[in-house]
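Hello K.,

You asked for the raw outputs rather than the summary table, so here they are, unedited. I folded two proteins back to back in the same session to keep the settings identical. This is the first:
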Amino acid sequence: MRTKIHFCLAALGFYLAWVGAADAALNVESAFVNGAATATVTPGATVSVYIQVTGSGIAPGWRATQWNFDGGSNACVNHDDFSTGTHDVTFDITAPEMPGTYDLNLTARQFDGCSGLSDSISLVDAIVVCADDDTDGICDAGDLCLGTPGGESVNGDGCSCSQLNCDDGDACTSDSCLDGVCSNDVADEDGDGVCDAYDSCLGTPDGESINGDGCSCSQLICDDNDACTADSCTDGVCSNAFEDADSDGVCDASDLCPGEDDTIDADSDGIPDGCDKCPNDPDNDLDADGVCGDVDVCHGFDDNLDADSDGTPDGCDDCPNDATKTAPGVCGCGVSEDDADADGVEDCIDNCPADPEKVDPGDCGCGEVDMDSDGDEIADCNDECPDDINKVVPGACGCGESDGDGDGNGVADCIDEAESNNNGGGNDNANGNDSGNENESPVPSPNPEACGVTCGPGMGTMMPLVGLCLVGMRRRHRVRRSR
């Protein structure tokens, strides 16, 4: 797992470096040796190299500089990590041991060890290595004082104080020498400490302090004719203090908003925020309703007019007299958009507002599902046989059993044990009554004595029908009880 994480991190680093490098660039702006375009040095001398580089889109940055003499072996100097912008670095290199004139090639590189993005500059004839017999650090060809004694400091011409005559023949000067440099102090007629050759104000009164040019305050005019400044003088130095009571960088004479910072103007409308009633509205309340544009709820209309006090100004309220709505919605202004049964249909258009399953009563009414278990297109609520696709009422035989009458005698087969009762008057003894007479009904004909009345010839036919009805009623009663 740890190996996978390291691999992912490495891949991410590579990707970020690749993305960053897509628009990255290094540009060498300038370079010098020993502060100049060329440097004359002795063999093996230390040379100071200055290089300035601009980086854009750098990832990770300018970290190293590669250098060589005349295409020789490269050397690499690592730096701090410089990112986007212009940066400069100074580092030391060692001059060649062999006298001669050398080009110095410098290459700015993106990564430590001198890899990645690069940009180069070549300093032609940058290093001149020359002989130096007296080892004073000045090439013999340019040494005006050969044979300098060992240990003595020299000037740029290779001369030490022991090799120079610093007397300039001027009685006004005081001649001296330090590290091969002569010093000749000039005369000072007014005794103000500034030699006459450099005194811009000769004849300074005794006791008055002066500036570096030999001038005292009595010899100067410090008024700079600038209304923004307060003019004064101390020890010959004029002061033109910038008057800015609120310290905002804008002088009091030109301050647009005294006591506030004139440089802070969030909406860039030319009015400093401290004096701007609408500091974040460059139009400064365009609809003039007293509400700044950046917090104006209803642009172009008066935010103060809100008839229903719902927080939405009338100009942007499509239901200005309904505090609960800003738009008519489905139900219109003044009517709630409530959905009591949370079925997604507003109560105002829901005919079953308390039934989440229905928006209209349907066959069974609100609160009852219009289910059709047997698929006979009659809802269960209206179907006495909800599981019998062929019946909606039990009939003679009950739900789940056909009310068919195979023998056409008007009695359902389920209660007619002889399906062929109507056989044309033959003596077939189909009903097994062993009498040889006509087939009898499953319900025996009553005898005349049991009637309680005189039984006519038609009574024998009617009684079986009465019996069938009684049996059917009992059967239906049993079905309903079982349900």
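The second followed immediately with the same parameters:
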Amino acid sequence: MINLQTLAIYDTEISGLIPAELGLCTELRDLYLHMNRLTGPILHELGRLLKLTSLFLWGNSLTGSIPGDLSNCSSLIVLDVSANELSGEIPKELGLTLLLYNHIPNWNLQQLLQSNQNLDWETRYEIGVGSAQGLCNTPKI
């Protein structure tokens, strides 16, 4: 399993903690564990996955905060931890290396821009607050 590059166990209703042993799969590029019943924290061990590009943990019952160790995953492009019970802020260590897609249906920006659908006020508020926080936490160059 050490050479594993993609692990997709989503929408299977598995429960329990994320196994710390996943941190040993150093070739892992894509980890899809969304829409399950996972609990507990996002493990610091995931920061060992230096080649990780996509991490989907949304739709679980994960708690705690996003570990700063994920900043070790320098190839990480997509991190989706929405619809969990997380607390705290996005760690500053992650900087601007992540592009978070929280409000784009079907991951299709063009579809969103061309649709006649209006965003509700709650979504507009979340986007505005998230954008402001991102601007406040940008690293100085």
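The two ends are 40 Å apart (CA to CA).

Happy to rerun anything if the numbers look odd on your end.

Regards,
P.
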